[in-house]
Amino acid sequence: GEVFDFVVAGAGWAGCVVANRLSENSKWKVLLVEAGGDPPFESEVPVMLEAHQHTEYDWRFYAESNTSCKALSDGKCFWPRGKCLGGTSSINAMLYVRGNVRDFDRWAEMGNNGWDYDSVLPFFKKCENNHFSQFVYKDNGRYHSDAGPLNIDFYGDNPVAKTFIDAGIEDGYKFISNINADEYIGYTKVQGTCYQGRRQSSAKVFLATAKNRTNLHVLKYGLVQKVLLNETNGAYGIEYVRNGKIIKAYAKKEVILSAGVIMSPVVLMLSGIGPKEDLEKHNIAPKCDLPVGKNLLDHVHVDPPTATDNIYNFAIHGTGGLTNFGVGTLSAFINTDKAEKFPNIQLAYFWFTENAPNLPTYIKGRPLSDEIAKKLMEVNQNHDIGVVAISLLHPNSTGSIQLNSSSIHDKTNIYPNYFNVPSDLKTMISAIRHQIFYTNSQSYSAKHGEVIMFPLKECSGIEYDSDEYWKCYITYMAATEYHHVGTCKMGTQSDRDSVVDERLRVHSVYGLRVCDASIMPIQVSRHTNAPAMMIGEKGADFIKNDYL
């Protein structure tokens, strides 16, 4: 029953940023509510990133799909999401890729004023402390900063990277030093939210640094189940469950939902904000008929050893000395139509040394079926394994989040609808063939690269390298890239698919904003953690401007 100026629900990438920035004003009393507890100590160590899936620090969501994920042990698409302070930033792969100028300019072209690239760039820089001075001082500091709280740096180098880069150069691509600047096509080494071998989660960066502020209150193990709305659809607080008790917290100014792409729409729908027909199915009184949970977008991937849009595996014989903890800091951004300036595919590279100690953890984290896991372990006894993850950057297929019941304790239904639009599958097959062609390159041949053929029963009678074969392969190997967005889409009120306006305010509701990756109207070109932080920074700026 305590009263605050602002109540923030969810302590993930965006929520921690919002709580930090609002509590900078000592006159404002801010409550941040998180469903989980502290992240585990081991999450500090990058090599342990797979170990926290399927644990108490993970929501352990599963998505329904008949077009993907057959290679996983239960045939369902596993969607890990962080359930602890820092949210998914405490368990993710930490790679820092913002997206390119066209991504954000397209947001603005859809009617979202102030979300073009030049407008969002200052908010990327605001939270950034980039430790690579050549980026910071190039072009008079246009693209990077070293004045923010979030440490960003390169991971250690890997000797195997040259093999992939050389193959790309043979194919006509160049090496790009900085993918977060003004070049978008080519091979590059990606920076990460990692510094001096330690993870930089949003909790460490934005909460730990604000721990001495008496006006910021962080409540752990509080599962938010609804937003409190008055008769005129004004938000005045939240209701959450803690230790089996239902508790209310009141907001004098605003409630900010930062519960993530899955849970933000769930909380809205349980509050009566969502598709009217869907709410009535679960005896929830509709208060505002909005397309909440629609427009679900994800970067889908094909892979056994790793999870990204599409993955193609090959063994490198007799190399050894592959010294990476499994996170692919080497990436390539390409377009299957080489005449295009902007990428539609990302290639992420992962590698496992002979008898790699982290391969079993990788297999368990997916989790891969017994047959495929056995094949990988057998090959790894005598060979290093490289994994090329082929990711579809701009899917046209959209899915949805739908309630399973009227209880916050029942897992929601997730329907990603991968490849429902045929052009997505066509692009993916083209990208797979493009990467297979690299096995004929001088660079790959020098390392005796060979394709690992997995025991896929349904695909065994189909002609290899035909479209039908790759369609079958994709149904096994495609899985989430963990880059879910769009379920509370930002757009104008005339956009029937939108939930929030350009200032992140929920349409037809007063005093309620959504501030996380769910507001993205379309996908960015790769990782969503950096854009989620930018959204947190920009959302907090909107709020400050409205109330100061």
> Helicity level, as a percent range?
10-25%
- Find the CATH superfamily of the largest domain: Glucose Oxidase, domain 3
CATH topology of the largest domain: Glucose Oxidase, domain 3
Tell me the total number of β-strands.
Answer: 27
Quaternary state, please? Answer: single chain
> What is the second-level CATH architecture of the largest domain?
2-Layer Sandwich
Poorly predicted tracts of residues:
304-327
The main pleated sheet reads as: 7 strands, mixed
Number of helical regions: 14
Total separate domains = 2
Structural class: alpha/beta
Please tell me the overall pLDDT. 90
- Kindly report how far apart the N and C termini lie: 26 Å
CATH class of the largest domain: Alpha Beta
Measured by DSSP, the beta-strand proportion falls in 15-25%
Rg from alpha-carbon coordinates: 23 Å
In one word, what is the shape?
Answer: globular
Structural account:
With 548 residues, the protein is α/β, with parallel strands linked by helices. It has 2 domains: 1-39 and 84-108 and 200-294 and 486-548, FAD/NAD(P)-binding domain; 43-82 and 155-189 and 298-483, Glucose Oxidase, domain 3 (2-Layer Sandwich), CATH 3.30.560.10. The strands form 8 sheets. Strands 1, 2, 12, 13, 14, 15 and 27 form a 7-stranded mixed sheet that branches. Strands 7-8-20-21-22-19-25 form a 7-stranded mixed sheet. Helix 3 crosses helix 14. The longest helix is centred in the last third of the chain and has 19 residues, at 529-547.
